[in-house]
Design goal:
Elements lengths: L19 H9 L5 E3 L21 E3 L20 H16 L6 H22 L4 E11 L19 E8 L3 E11 L2
Antiparallel strand pairs: 1-2, 3-5, 4-5
Helix pairs in contact: 2-3
Length: 182
């Protein structure tokens, strides 16, 4: 109160007021990190229309899936990485068979492939597995490359699989990590 010599503060919105939910959500998500989940078609060349179906969207990384604790330390079913690898091999073959390495198209292509690979893994994964799909691509010019990843995980239940597609001009490696989430 200004009568007591204090500063005047504005009253916060209540959840029950009209349009207050958007204001509260905006306030809470103010400092969250945003990540790209699609690429804008206007940034692509005309011949790349077959790569994407949806426009650029952003989502807050703060949003998480809520699951009740089961107190199970072992999954009901193991992650079938051989089935995922076979499906990812087919996907890479179909999508990359007739492609050439063009630097300006690789960003859009890797985003599209990582979404497709994650969708395949999600379809085949049992419940309570968190999935990470990573796609690496590079041009082949008589050089060697070593790709490495480090994670803190349970070696008994967490697993990964990778699939490599290679032509004379470039390579693409898709990797899926499946982490059991209790």
């Amino acid at each position: 109160d200004s009568r007591r010599g204090g500063s005047t503060r504005t009253r916060r919105s209540s959840v029950f007021e009209e349009n207050a939910f958007h204001e509260i959500l905006k306030e809470r998500l103010h400092d969250t990190i945003l990540q790209v989940v699609h690429v804008d078609k206007s940034e692509l060349e005309e011949d790349d229309d077959d790569v994407f179906e949806e426009p650029l969207t952003w989502k807050p990384s703060l949003v998480k899936q809520k699951m009740a604790n089961t107190y199970k330390l072992v999954p009901d079913k193991e992650f079938n990485f051989t089935a995922v690898k076979k499906r990812v091999d087919v996907l890479l073959e179909v999508k990359l068979r007739d492609k050439d390495f063009e630097t300006h198209n690789m960003k859009a292509l890797t985003l599209s492939l990582s979404e497709d690979i994650r969708a395949i893994a999600k379809e085949l994964a049992p419940e309570r597995f968190k999935l990470i799909a990573r796609v690496f691509c590079g041009e082949l010019k008589n050089q060697g490359i070593v790709l490495a990843s480090r994670y803190l995980w349970d070696p008994e239940h967490d697993t990964w699989c990778e699939s490599l597609f290679q032509t004379n001009s470039f390579f693409v490696m898709g990797t899926v990590y499946a982490l059991y989430y209790e």
